Amino acid sequence: EDQVTQSPEALRLQEGESSSLNCSYTVSGLRGLFWYRQDPGKGPEFLFTLYSAGEEKEKERLKATLTKKESFLHITAPKPEDSATYLCAVLEEKLTFGTGTRLTIIP
Amino acid sequence: KAGVTQTPRYLIKTRGQQVTLSCSPISGHRSVSWYQQTPGQGLQFLFEYFSETQRNKGNFPGRFSGRQFSNSRSEMNVSTLELGDSALYLCASSLDGANYEQYFGPGTRLTVT
């Protein structure tokens, strides 16, 4: 069965303090890895899709990378508005989501 | 371009009743997926519809069903509600079957009492 594990479960950072979120997966035939951001009471918001090992995508302060076993979401100099839960999902036959990392940026 | 819309946004039902939730995808999107989100289990895949056909189904009992109409709008139905069905039900649409950049609606918060 597909497994998607995100770590840490929660992360508190000072504003401007860079860090990385991890998403490790075990699927036999990865067709894509997706990152989403979810704010409380809202649906997930699409951020990135990565298709092959070595691929990188950037958007503002976020950069996603992919290896054969895991993906990282790097956040550089975060701001309070980056506070949210970040979800990753892997696509084989269907999308399987991890349980997310709850990120809090303290002003 | 309008996003994914879901109705109703909030719903309170009694155990044993049935409920129908509605989802209108982004214009031009032909694939609609449904998810259940709970604090303990996270986002769990229910099913996916593409061109009115169910293409994938998650591990949920037969009380959960869905359909898609010719205009790509989708409904999901839960019969004989149980307390454990209380959750946020999310609908997501994508352009076509091969492109899984899914765009989510705001969800329907279902409370079963």
What report would you give on this structure?
The complex is a heterodimer of chains A (107) and B (113). With 107 residues, chain A is mainly beta. Helix content of chain A is 0%, strand content 59%. Chain A contains no helices and eleven strands. In chain A, the strands form two sheets. In chain A, strands 2, 4, 5, 9, 10 and 11 form a six-stranded mixed β-sheet that branches. Chain A has a five-stranded antiparallel β-sheet with strand order 1-3-8-7-6, with no helix packed on it. Chain B contains no helices and eleven strands. In chain B, strands 2, 4, 5, 6, 9, 10 and 11 form a seven-stranded mixed β-sheet that branches. Chain B has a four-stranded antiparallel β-sheet with strand order 1-3-8-7, with no helix packed on it. Classes of the chains: A mainly beta (107), B mainly beta (113).
Describe the secondary-structure layout.
The complex is a heterodimer of chains A (107) and B (113).
Chain A: E1 3-7, E2 10-14, E3 19-26, E4 32-38, E5 45-50, E6 56-59, E7 62-66, E8 70-75, E9 84-91, E10 95-97, E11 101-106
Parallel strand pairs in A: 2-11
Antiparallel strand pairs in A: 1-3, 3-8, 4-5, 4-9, 6-7, 7-8, 9-10, 9-11
Chain B: E1 5-7, E2 10-13, E3 19-24, E4 31-38, E5 42-50, E6 53-57, E7 64-68, E8 74-78, E9 87-94, E10 103-104, E11 108-112
Parallel strand pairs in B: 2-11
Antiparallel strand pairs in B: 1-3, 3-8, 4-5, 4-9, 5-6, 7-8, 9-10, 9-11
